[in-house]
Amino acid sequence: MLNRKNMRGFYVLAPTPFTKSGEFDEETFRENVRSLCEQDIQGIATTGTLGEFHTIPWEDHKRLIRALVDEAKGRVATVPGCSGINTDEAIMKTKFAQDAGADAAMNTVPFYTKVTREECVKYYKDVAKACPNIGLVVYNNPETTKFLVDAPLFTELAKIPTLCGSKEIVGYTPLADFPHWMSIVHATDLAHFCCDPATVVASLYDTKGVTSENFALRPKLFLEVWKACMDKDWEKAKKFHYQQMEFTNFVYQCFGMGKYTWFCVLKAALDNLGIIKGGYPRRPFIPVPEKLQKKAKEQVLKKYGTEK
After folding, report:
1. Is 242 tagged catalytic?
2. What domains, with CATH codes, occur in the chain?
3. Helices (DSSP H) in 161-233: which residue ranges?
4. Which residue of the set 167, 208, 277, 297 is catalytic?
């Protein structure tokens, strides 16, 4: 079970691979988990945006949670996303993850209608009370929820014993800027994790870890960045981080960022370049055409070679 003391390190956000007809490809997902567990990482999180919690049917979501725990075998922390559009749905999903043996559940606030500050606190308290034997991670994604869990709210939420910390999207949206990051890391003892674009600056300001969706495109480089940050070798960290972001941006541009939804772009890139497979997105999202994927792969390999 994760808690705010042991939630540390490099966590990978895993995609949910679907077949062309929209079926959950469980065997590919299991292969992905096995491949990731061979890397020097500390956790795997699923069914966030890249993991398409918003498209996966509940019966398949249950299969995914079981497969994650089964394949990880305690080698890395397991953190399935269990967000729901209301409290009861989130409790149902989180309780299933708890009973399946997951280490924590990663949840946004309910998101169809913007919640109030009081409703946010009550929501996490209710989920924690109903599911006392699993860690809780706040998925702080104001792009989806139109609601930012800020430092005063984290001060309230820190009173929940099983609440571990949060996954922040600082660096991806102006709705969660760097002053927000500085304020939350100093407010409580919760374990706050940053995303790829903020790795170096967040490490200067007490990040407890990284959640990376792009890791599987070039694992060695991503881990070099994180290791340099942990060693406080800031010149090396900046050098590798610039290379990481330059590479990632080029990959996204080649695979159709702007024309196709970002996680559809990343899934296509993983299929062609990664150590794991992304698979198809589920409707209504449109996959990157195979012709474009072929051209993009050639462009990336020409510029960066085959090194993973």
Report:
1. no
2. 9-233 (3.20.20.70)
3. 178-185, 199-204, 219-230
4. 167
